[in-house]
TrEMBL record:
This is 2-phosphoxylose phosphatase 1. The lineage of its organism: Eukaryota, Metazoa, Chordata, Craniata, Vertebrata. It is a single-pass type II membrane protein. The keyword Protease does not apply. It comes from Catagonus wagneri (Chacoan peccary). Interacts with B3GAT3; the interaction increases the 2-phosphoxylose phosphatase activity of PXYLP1 during completion of linkage region formation in a B3GAT3-mediated manner. One of its GO terms (biological process) is positive regulation of heparan sulfate proteoglycan biosynthetic process. It catalyses: 3-O-[beta-D-GlcA-(1->3)-beta-D-Gal-(1->3)-beta-D-Gal-(1->4)-beta-D-2-O-P-Xyl]-L-seryl-[protein] + H2O = 3-O-(beta-D-GlcA-(1->3)-beta-D-Gal-(1->3)-beta-D-Gal-(1->4)-beta-D-Xyl)-L-seryl-[protein] + phosphate. InterPro entries: His_Pase_clade-2 (IPR000560), His_PPase_superfam (IPR029033), Histidine_acid_phosphatase (IPR050645). SUPFAM superfamilies: Phosphoglycerate mutase-like. Responsible for the 2-O-dephosphorylation of xylose in the glycosaminoglycan-protein linkage region of proteoglycans thereby regulating the amount of mature glycosaminoglycan (GAG) chains. Sulfated glycosaminoglycans (GAGs), including heparan sulfate and chondroitin sulfate, are synthesized on the so-called common GAG-protein linkage region (GlcUAbeta1-3Galbeta1-3Galbeta1-4Xylbeta1-O-Ser) of core proteins, which is formed by the stepwise addition of monosaccharide residues by the respective specific glycosyltransferases. One of its GO terms (molecular function) is phosphatase activity.
Length: 479
């Protein structure tokens, strides 16, 4: 009972915070003192501090609530903000799928009872929910590249299947889509009312949760779209690296990064003790429990206000949750400080950034194709892109996170194009590694397209020990 009351309070608090605060969705604003494990974090910048809403110390519950991204009242966002003489040319949207059922089960416990059917009298609700379902029911396989057409177009199981998108996940992306519609279509007229199929570029990985998230966003963006005019491409790789996935050096960085992660875990005796206790409760070896990645399942309990599982030996509880969540936060922080992940991220994100830059350059040349691009993806897609861009303060991608690149033309100097980059509605353009200085030297409200192009075509690799292109950086001897 105590647990439930606390939950109620926390969820109410979450709704309030989501409304009041915007910047805290994005940055770790906390003035980090000397952290545990001897990690000195004083070098971390505080960006856009918001002393009113941000808790004074890193709070695992607060962070978990941001991660859940529980839909609430209309969110403020900075997308589409530009001076009058700027014209919006193209928009490139990267999303993480919405709230989903866990991918793992906690051994020997009942899995959480979450209903994945979409119904009006259950929260969270969106006014377009029923219309979305009936529109999906009319969906046609010709709009989807093989093997996507074997996937269901919306979630429908009374007891969610593993990894299935939930109603919360659908609502999150209907909201995202509607928000982007208001800004990009109604305000900036990105697409003409008789838009043609080649003005959209849609791509998703082959999971039902990413396809359905992409469709929900698209439905919010273009309600009752003509199925004959849309085409979702299938991306086999979570890195969206298409024909350029082979990169041995990237894998070497990843192995080193995983080693770092392992060593950090070993240092955390409180974490080991917590896993031990939980393993005793569910009566499996600690190793087996850890391998079942219990935080994934616990987050589902947490985000859905379902109490943690119990056995005859006791209950998994909020204290266990806090310890594991806190470790995740510390891991994330160390990951950004030690540069191994950056190496992985630069190589992992290059192909998709290169593709995006190519699309922007064609749009800047006046081609009227692929003006709106949507990539429906995973945390393991967004996370390397954020790191590669130099957004080290960015929070780990929450459910239904969105990362957006906007391309603008200066009408007063039609030859000049500029980009804005937004993460969950926050303008992070001048936090990227390729546009930090620009902010100080120029009064311009955005970043020249050339900066992004130069970064993606060349400077990304300089950071990796002097290579000049992707192929060399991926095959460097003696790494
Ligand atoms: C959480 O669950 C409890 C009991 O199951 C319920 O009374 C409460 O309203 C729920 N809170 C929210 C915010 O849904
Ligand atoms: C980068 O994009 C160009 C076209 O814009 C393409 O020719 C090239 O193969 C791409 N390189 C990589 C590594 O993705």
């Amino acid at each position: 009972m105590l647990f439930r009351n606390r939950f109620l309070l926390l969820l109410a608090l979450a709704a309030l915070l989501a409304f009041v605060s915007l910047s805290l969705q994005f940055f770790h604003l906390i003035p980090v003192s000397v952290a545990k494990n001897g990690m000195d974090s004083k070098s971390r910048k505080r960006i856009m501090p918001d002393p009113v809403t941000e808790p004074p110390v890193m709070d695992p519950i607060y962070e978990a609530l941001l991660y859940c991204n529980i839909p609430s009242v209309a969110e403020r966002s900075m997308e589409g903000h530009a001076p009058h003489h700027f014209k919006l040319v193209s928009v490139h949207v990267f999303i993480r799928h919405g709230d989903r059922y866990p991918l793992y089960v906690i051994p020997k416990t009942k899995r959480p009872e979450i209903d994945c059917t979409l119904v009006a009298n259950r929260k969270p609700y969106h006014p377009k929910l029923e219309a979305f379902v009936s529109h999906m029911a009319k969906g046609s396989g010709t709009s989807l590249e093989s093997p996507l057409h074997s996937l269901p177009l919306y979630p429908s199981h009374p007891l969610c299947e593993m990894g299935e998108l939930t109603q919360t996940g659908v609502v999150q992306h209907l909201q995202n889509g509607q928000l982007l519609r208001d800004i990009y279509l109604k305000k900036h007229k990105l697409l003409p009312s008789d838009w043609s199929p080649d003005q959209l570029y849609l791509e998703t990985t082959g999971k039902s949760r990413t396809l359905q998230s992409g469709l929900a966003l698209l439905y919010g963006f273009l309600p009752d779209f003509d199925w004959k005019k849309i085409y979702f491409r299938h991306q086999p790789s979570a890195l969206f690296c298409s024909g350029n996935c082979y990169c041995p050096v990237r894998n070497q960085y990843l192995e080193k990064e995983q080693r770092r992660q392992y060593l950090l875990r070993l240092k955390n005796s409180q974490l080991e003790r917590t896993y031990g206790e939980m393993a005793r409760i569910v009566d499996v070896p600690t190793k087996q429990l850890r391998a079942a990645n219990p935080i994934d399942s616990m987050l589902c309990h947490f985000c859905h206000n379902v109490s943690f599982p119990c056995t005859k030996n006791g209950c998994i509880d909020m204290e266990h949750f806090k310890v594991i969540k806190m470790h995740q936060i510390e891991d994330e922080r160390e990951r950004q400080e030690k540069k191994l992940y950056l190496g992985y991220a630069l190589l992992g994100a290059h192909p998709i950034l290169n593709q995006t830059v190519g699309r922007m350059q064609r749009a800047a040349e006046g081609r009227r194709e692929e003006l709106f691009a949507l990539y429906s993806a995973h945390d393991v897609t967004l996370s390397p892109v954020l790191s590669a861009l130099g957004l080290t303060e960015a929070r780990f991608p929450r459910f239904a996170a969105r990362l957006i690149f906007e391309l603008w033309q200066d009408r007063e100097k039609p030859g000049e194009h500029a980009v804005r980059i937004l993460y969950n509605g926050v303008d992070v353009t001048f936090h990227t590694s390729f546009c930090q200085d620009h902010h100080r030297r120029s009064p311009k409200p955005m970043c020249p397209l050339e900066n992004l192009v130069r970064f993606v075509k060349r400077d990304m690799f300089v950071a990796l020990g002097g290579s000049t292109n992707y192929y060399d950086a991926c095959h460097k001897e003696g790494f």
